[in-house]
Amino acid sequence: MTGRLERPSIPVLVNANHYSIELEWEHIRIQDEARSRSRRLFDETGLAHSGSLIYLHQREKKIGSIWENIYTGSALRYKVENLKPNTQYEYRIQCKSGLNGERSEWSPILLTSTTPEPMNGETVFKAIGVPGKEQLEKLLQILGPEHHLLEHPDKDGNLPLMHACAKLDINKVELLIQAGANVNNYISSGKTALMVAASTGFSKACALLIENGANIYSVDQNGITILHHAVDSKNFDTIAVIIKQLNNETDEKIKDFEINRQVGPHKWTPLYRAVIHDCNKEIIELLLRNGANSECQDKSTSTTALQMAVIRGNLFTTQLLVTYGADTRTPSKISGKTLQELASSTNKMDLINYVNSLPGASRV
Per the UniProt entry, what are the Gene Ontology biological process annotations, in alphabetical order (predicted)? Predict the structure, then answer.
């Protein structure tokens, strides 16, 4: 019947990083030398006797975790890899003599942990991508205020604040702003977080960014304004937030310029863009009520907003443009057709009847 080998001491931590832990138990050799030769694990040259083994067990420090054997052999050092970052693990060892089969008790338990994952450009983006705000909140506490990673772009050149806006997550937008993310930082295309929020129809983020100093007058490399981006979203609340801020402008010339700013090769104003996008009547009226010029046109074709509304068969937009003074008598400079002829081409009787009812109309 076999006895018990002396209990080994606790394993010793050699090194740890975010994915591995290295341990050693050199003390086992010293302990072994004090035994009689018939009970030893190693011979005089330091080689392990046949059948002499050291067992290394591991378990994660959490409720319900069980021990698992991760190493069996005679080495006095072992590196455990593919571990979770920033996680606690427990380790214990047991010895067995190959000469007489004696085993030791398990050693005392070593509690150690992997380190947090190194901070790099992807760290913040990963936290933004995780559902809920807890992981980002924890990360930002570690980083501290105005950390450079808050302005580090991803592989596509986008910034963390832009990602949060694109994901329509107001909690993460707020956390990043509170942590010191620059609301006016931009990338090579000239895009800002406010442009992302505006183009995605994220009205709450637009309001929060503006409240924290986002520049309402910034333009991208194509000259596209915040209001144009908002119109692209076809979201009434988002457009309303931008117009409300423009209405705070004390210089009427600047306000009028922004409301009617012409951009791109065709020189579309926000209103013309809204007509092209078939925005609803509430958006069209919002723009007109706040100073949008009903006589705007595509400068490359001289097609007016009213003509375009008729061509697109949009009765409500046509009615609103007429109400706000759009010229109903000017024929198309491309086809020479009158407004009535353009309406007739749509085969929409409600639009045709309305256009034919306008003063001075010649029925088709």
Answer: regulation of apoptotic process
Q: Domains (ranges, CATH) in the chain?
A: 4-113 (2.60.40.10)
* Residue type (1 letter), 228: H
Q: Which two tokens stand for residue 251?
A: 């210089």
Find, among 315, 268, 276, the residue nearest to 293 by Cα: 268
42-62 pLDDT, tens digit each: 998 989 999 999 999 999 999
- Measured between alpha carbons, how far is 361 from 338 in angstroms, rounded to an integer? 9
Q: Look at residues 175, 249, 239, 243 and name the one whose alpha carbon lies nearest to residue 212.
A: 175
**Which residue in 206, 214, 153, 154 sits closest to 182, CA to CA?**
214
Report the interhelical angle of 170-178 vs 134-143 (nearest 10°).
Answer: 10
pLDDT reading at 68 higher than 90: yes
Q: Which of 131, 126, 107 is nearest to 116 (CA)?
A: 126
Helices (H) and strands (E) in the chain, counts: 16, 11
- Say how far apart CA 180 and CA 183 lie, in whole Å: 9
- Residues 291-325 have pLDDT tens digits of 999 999 999 999 999 999 999 999 999 999 999 99
Q: Distances from the Cα of 34 to the Cαs of 11, 43, 76, in angstroms?
A: 19, 12, 17
Cβ atoms of residues 25 and 12 within 8 Å = yes
Contact 100, 38 (CB under 8 A): yes
> Cβ(340)–Cβ(356) under 8 Å?
yes
Q: How far is CA 34 from the centre of its chain?
A: 61
Query: What is the four-CA torsion angle of 183, 187, 190, 196, rounded to 10 degrees?
Result: -60
**111 DSSP 8-state letter:** E
pLDDT greater than 50 at residue 1: no
Tokens of 229: 């981006």
What angle, 0 to 180 degrees and rounded to 10, lies between the N-to-C axes of helices 315-323 and 349-356?
A: 20
**Cα gap 165→184, rounded to integer Å:** 14
DSSP assignment letter at 9: P
* Structural contact between residues 258 and 229, judged by C-beta atoms closer than 8 angstroms: no
Q: Which of left, alpha, beta for 278 (phi over 0: left; psi -120 to 50: alpha)?
A: left
